[in-house]
């Protein structure tokens, strides 16, 4: 849904995704606190599918300052989600799995909201100067990951003994603040 009020253009998007498993099944997930002695977890119908946020939304604003210059911003928000390895949505941080191993990871990533901004100056019909800033507030968040065994110590050194590996969240961090400045030319 979107529209325009004078020189201000806007666009709003919201998604509700009820992504759930439709049947029961057994899955290997040894880093999950509910894993049995074989490293398997029982996933039941109705468990949420990992890495698919239930709620996502975006608000986009674009303002024409002059006929040649516009500024804009967008806000993106997503609810938290379960990580791969917590397909049964039952992992408990601090728990112990069936193999007697402690589980440090929560099996979830938090929701996030991020602000991006942009500006464009139209030099002529075919050329633009632009600036784009993503993650303006330099928010630290993750967009994907696994509940898995970590073979590294916090200082980055390798743990050679598998008995020393920890079961924790391994997440993919989102893009930090970044700035692009450039020129676009359209061939006509």
Shape, principal axes of CA atoms:
elongated
Strand order of the largest sheet: 1-2-5-6-9-10-13
- Low-confidence spans: none
**Beta strands, count:** 13
Count of helical regions: 0
Distance between the termini: 31 Å
Rg measurement, Å: 23 Å
Main beta-sheet strand count, sense and barrel state? 7 strands, antiparallel
- What class do helices, strands and sheet pairing give? mainly beta
Mean pLDDT comes to 95
Strand content: over 45%
Helicity range of the residues? under 10%
N to C succession of SSEs: EEEEEEEEEEEEE
Can you offer a commentary on this structure?
This protein is mostly beta strands and 188 residues long. Helix content is 0%, strand content 47%. The chain has no helices and 13 strands. A hairpin with a 4-residue loop joins strand 9 and strand 10. The chain starts with a strand and ends with a strand.
Q: What's this model, at a glance?
A:
This protein is mainly β and 188 residues long. The protein has strands spanning 2-5, 8-16, 25-28, 40-43, 55-64, 69-78, 81-82, 108-109, 112-122, 127-134, 142-150, 166-173, 178-185. The model has no long low-confidence stretch (mean pLDDT 95).
């Amino acid at each position: 849904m979107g529209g325009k009020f004078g020189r201000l253009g806007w666009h709003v998007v919201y998604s509700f995704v009820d992504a759930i498993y439709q049947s029961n099944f057994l899955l290997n997930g040894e880093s999950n606190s509910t894993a049995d002695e074989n490293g398997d977890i029982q996933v039941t119908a109705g468990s949420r599918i990992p890495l698919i946020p239930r709620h996502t939304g975006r608000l986009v604003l674009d303002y024409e300052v002059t006929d040649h210059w516009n500024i804009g911003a967008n806000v993106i928000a997503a609810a938290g989600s379960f990580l791969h390895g917590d397909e049964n949505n039952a992992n408990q941080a601090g728990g112990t799995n069936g193999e007697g191993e402690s589980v440090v990871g929560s099996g979830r990533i938090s929701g996030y909201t991020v602000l991006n901004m942009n500006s464009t100056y139209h030099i002529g019909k075919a050329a633009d100067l632009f600036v784009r800033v993503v993650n303006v507030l330099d928010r630290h968040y993750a967009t994907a990951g696994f509940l898995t065994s970590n073979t590294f110590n916090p200082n980055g050194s390798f743990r050679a003994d598998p008995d020393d590996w920890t079961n924790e969240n391994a997440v993919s961090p989102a893009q930090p603040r970044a700035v692009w400045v450039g020129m676009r030319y359209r061939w006509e």
